[in-house]
Amino acid sequence: MLRSAAKNYRYVGVVVDPADYSPVLQELEASGELSVQTRSRLCVKAFRATADYDAAIDRYLSEKLADEKILRLKYTRGQVLRYGENWHQKATFYRDEEITEPCAGDVKQLHGKQMSYNNYLDVDGAIEAVKELGNTVGVAVIKHTNPCGYATGETPREALEAAWQGDPVSAFGSIIACTVPVDLATAEFLKEKFVEILVAPGYEKEALAFLKSKSKNLRILQIPPIGSGEAEKYTYRHIIGGILQQERDISLYQQWETVTQSEFPEEKKALAEFAWKAVKHTKSNAIVLAREYKPGRFQVIGMGAGQPNRIDSLQKLAVTKARENLKNICGEKNIKREMSELVMASDAFFPFDDIVLVAAEHGIRYIVQPGGSLRDDQVIATANRKGISMVFTAMRHFLH
User: Fold this and answer.
1) pTM reported for the whole predicted model
2) Cβ(347)–Cβ(314) under 8 Å?
3) Cys-Cys with 197: which of 50, 60, 219, 274 at CB 3.0–4.6 Å?
4) Whole-angstrom Cα distance, residue 234 to residue 134?
5) Which residues are identified as catalytic?
6) DSSP structural state of residue 20
7) Per-residue pLDDT tens digits for 96-117
């Protein structure tokens, strides 16, 4: 019946959405009929409703009667983007209207240039990273979807400063996300700094005015409060010829077990959990070195991401960056002491004990990793020999 009515939209107005009841009645009362524009709009909504209904029937019956899994996804409100992953590529963003949690698909742009393909990828990474921090005041500084800066603080300004310290060079042209509304002090920190995008659950009036005056190109995005809405259960990823579906990686760890002779200190657990959150949102193979820069406040001080092996992620990237940052923050003479207080997190297990030896060589005494290697016993024995405290979480966090 709906389909037949929609086919005859030149003469019939078909209403399938309760949100249309009031405007349709108002138009009928005002003019005695529905305009062709209104009937056309209602026609599209009717066909969309019947298409959704048919898709639901197909999906259900295919699985129940034909033992076949059918996936039909609906994305709407296509938005042409500035360009694709590269300048020569055209791109469009489509929205999933059913998502209710804060997400890149539901940002409200308050200022700045048109969004690009890469902007959406980075904003997605930024929002997911700060959602991990929950109700704490936290900031993620994202570059190519990796958190080159990640920190908590008493205020958003303090968290941003601490996150920026993690990699000031990479922070140039970054995407910044905050767990809380941006105030003027936080905005003023960015006065002489180039960032592409700022994402937050809100902006104080003075902060928004300051940011708008700072640059006509700065994209200022607003999202709903962190923690609102219902978490989506699945993620999807296109490959040529198909699409992959998986359960979303929402959990943090399955267990928290000290596996070494040296017990993992309880006073280091909050820092270790922060490091574990950071490494979860860093591209594999990932290593994160985290620091407690003041009581109860944490920052990523060095990270290695996207390497074919985690030795390079640690030795060539994370340690190098951590030592460089600590020299700038604390001075050369304090690097050794500071390194000994860091927590190292690895997104996956250690296939060999070589990474433990490298960590020990640089004075690292605390490690968090999933465990599960065939050589766990060897890795644990080496950690014991080097006086390292190590926790197994029994949960890997690969990110590709």
Assistant:
1) 0.92
2) no
3) 219
4) 20
5) 7, 144
6) G
7) 989 999 999 999 999 999 999 9
